[in-house]
Amino acid sequence: MSAAPTTCLRFVARRYLILSIVAFGLVTLAGRTIWSRNAYYFRGMDPPPLPTPPALPEVLPPLYARFRETELHLPQERWEQRRPRADEKFLFVAGHSRGCGWGNAMQELLLNAYMAYKAGRSFVFANYTWNDNGSQYSEYNGKKIPSLIPYSAIIQGPIVGAPFPPGDHTPPAVHRDYFDAMCPHKVTYIREDISETISFKNSAKEITDGWANKLARIEEPCIQTAPNSRQIYNFDVFGDPKAMIDIWPELSASPILTHFGWSPLVELAFDNNRDLFLSSTAVEPYLTSSPFTTNAERYSAIPGLMAIHLRRGDFEAHCEHLGRHSARYAAFNSLPALVDTFEPPPPPHAGFERGTNSDENMATYRARCFPSVAQVVERVRAVRATPAGRGLSKLYIMTNADREFIKALKTALWRDQPWEMLASSRDVVLNWEQTFVAQALDMLVGQRAQVFVGNGFSTLTANVVTMRMANRFPPESTRFW
Question: What predicted TM-score, i.e. pTM, was given to this entire model?
Fold first, then answer.
């Protein structure tokens, strides 16, 4: 009768013994693990170094291959041919700008395309060119950038091969590679063939008419300007306040501007960041979901938005140079209808040395070319108080400034007046392809703002002004510092 309890007790004892052994083993293992992890510190030694991580491959800029491929398969490009058709006549400006900013390149592109249009020839477009030495990449400010960007990655419209509007029988534009394939033998002219025959050498109209008249008498289909002949419309033209006055009525009414558009890549960047630009109550279709019509219809004014253009960085030295040489506003920033004009202050005295200026005059230039935070705040407040500024609630800062400057400016603007939102070029979210054409997004925003305040000496501002004036925005809505 007593055997059963004894057996039960032995079973329980064995269970406790097994559990005790297991527990002891776990404690010992844990202790050894902890000791091994800290033994180096207890011994006064550093742990062995971690292996060097493998080097990450450098992320290279995009090459925009899909855009180039589209440019080489335009409907008007008949690659099966060996020579131009009877109705094909081309004009390629081989001496186009290189190694300059997009603002300069775009101004030149518009006028080159208009010159071909007026001559009744197919405009031959190449690439936005930073470096044409055959390299895929170049360096700018210590960073790699694409040496070439297809223009269709930045813009759309007749300039890059889209059809002209119905009833306009001007032959459409073609890519340079197609021109080279059709025209192994070209007739080449130099810039001086025309520039030496006109009275006002910076007049865009005289230059354009001179080339159009010359080309109208030539039956040869394959015409180019000499690569080493420099730009037809050069920096002197774009820096002369009188250069665009005569040509503006016809240029602004031409399909080069009326049917100009920003590329789907740029428009997608706008759509993805539209909350920074549009009012919270705005109802507007996405650009990328809307068929293209005209420049004016597609890029209408955004109610409530003020856009301001602030160049920083190396522009400080450029502004000093402009001040020392008593420069005037850029050509497109000097159209007669614009409200803000600029007359360089007179030199301190008659014998003042050229290339220098007084401190007072230099301060005048800095306020208009490189304004301080306080000067920006004051100007924004003044423009917002005008009839054109009624209802402004959002402010977008187009800038290459560093984040510290932008932070200080935003803080000052917030403190001065209430805004629904303040945003800048540093706040937009871009994909890798859009990153290298971001200036075009800023131009699109500036073009559509209810009110725009720009830099009268800047070609980027000048392109925004060009589009606003072509689209018949009220002149009082386009201002300068």
Answer: 0.87
